[in-house]
Specification:
By secondary structure, this protein is α+β, with helices and mostly antiparallel strands. The protein is 32% helix and 26% strand. It is elongated. Keywords: Coiled coil.
Length: 339
């Protein structure tokens, strides 16, 4: 009996594929249905093939380009820091030896003018000269070393699990604790304790920059307002480009970004906002996070649960950066993290 029309009088045939019985009329319809299924299947294969065109893999090429660009940027930034450190070492060497040479030269000149010298003094000066040359060769030898290898990439193929573990992984950003110190100072401020403590008693502000250069990743610095000497004290925390020259007023330094204790915010050297309750007071610990990766500076004070961040204008404040602080009538300590 035909499975479609259930007519027993018509000639019947059995389908070899599905095993069902059809009359001749409906067997033809059944065959057409099978042909349509075959056409749909062929089209599905063609559609799958079309998804495997080159543009399907462009994302992987894009990832390789991203790695290449980041590696180049890392190398270029490292070269900037290395050159800056080399210039600093060279200048320190020059300053050290020039001071020593000038001192000996002054002694020789005075002895020559007064004619108060003999072969003994000449022999001593020659020995000092030889010692100086030997010390220069032995103790101020500069060597360039490979400090860190460049991470390379390779292409592998792995079958995806039902749940992509990589996509489920929480991304953790490492924040480095830094051994920075106060470095350059403009004003009448004074350093103590190997440049970890600075204070300014008088009316005039002291502008101080850090020693380290920051050009990638995240870095955490902690300061303490250790003491306050006067009611009109003030304290600023921020950063600037390493090429910026210290000046007496913030608005003369276009790269400066940061926060005043009084409530003002500084961007590109320009102050905005209004005077409010002090963000930090005597005894407070203030944490500064320099985020080179996302071009941000973040400040926080846990005592009053205050925190704020501002984006850095990379055009006016180019990497590498240095921290900058301005104080008046207070003592500021840079906490030297041991970890």
């Amino acid at each position: 009996m035909c499975i479609i029309c259930e007519n027993l009088n018509k000639e019947q045939r059995t389908c070899n594929g599905c095993g069902q019985i059809f009359c001749l009329t409906h067997l033809i319809d059944h065959q057409h249905s099978i042909d349509e299924q075959m056409n749909d299947l062929k089209k599905s294969y063609q559609d799958l093939k079309s998804t495997w065109k080159d543009n399907h893999y462009q994302e992987y090429f894009h990832q390789i380009d991203q790695w290449k660009n980041k590696s180049i940027e890392k190398i270029q930034n490292n070269a900037v820091v290395a050159k800056a450190n080399l210039e600093k070492l060279i200048q320190q060497s020059k300053d050290y030896y020039n001071t020593f040479i000038d001192k000996i030269s002054e002694q020789i000149e005075k002895s020559k003018e007064t004619k108060n010298f003999s072969e003994i003094q000449i022999k001593q000066w020659k020995q000092q000269l030889n010692n100086l040359q030997l010390e220069y060769q032995e103790h101020f030898y500069i060597q360039i070393e490979d400090f860190e290898q460049i991470s390379l990439i390779k292409i592998t193929q792995k079958r995806k699990q039902h749940v992509d573990e990589h996509e489920q992984m929480n991304k953790k950003i490492k924040i480095k604790l830094n051994h920075d110190r106060f470095d350059k100072i403009l004003g009448n401020g004074e350093y103590f304790e190997n440049n970890l403590l600075v204070e300014s008693h008088i009316e005039m502000r002291s502008i101080i920059s850090g020693r380290n250069l920051y050009f990638n990743e995240k870095h955490s610095l902690q300061f303490q307002i250790e003491d306050v000497f006067r009611t009109g004290w003030t304290c600023f925390f921020g950063l600037m480009t390493s090429k910026e020259v210290l000046k007496l007023y913030v608005d003369q330094m276009n790269s400066v970004h940061g926060f005043w204790s009084s409530g003002y915010v500084v961007r590109n050297g320009k102050r905005s906002g209004c005077c409010r309750e002090r963000r930090w007071i005597q005894g407070d610990y203030v944490t500064m996070i320099i985020d080179c990766q996302h071009r941000l500076i973040h400040l926080e004070n846990k005592r009053n649960d205050w925190h704020e961040e501002i984006p850095i204008d990379i055009q006016s404040c180019r990497l590498p950066w240095k921290f900058l602080t301005i104080i008046k009538g207070c003592r500021l300590r840079l906490i030297h993290n041991s970890s």
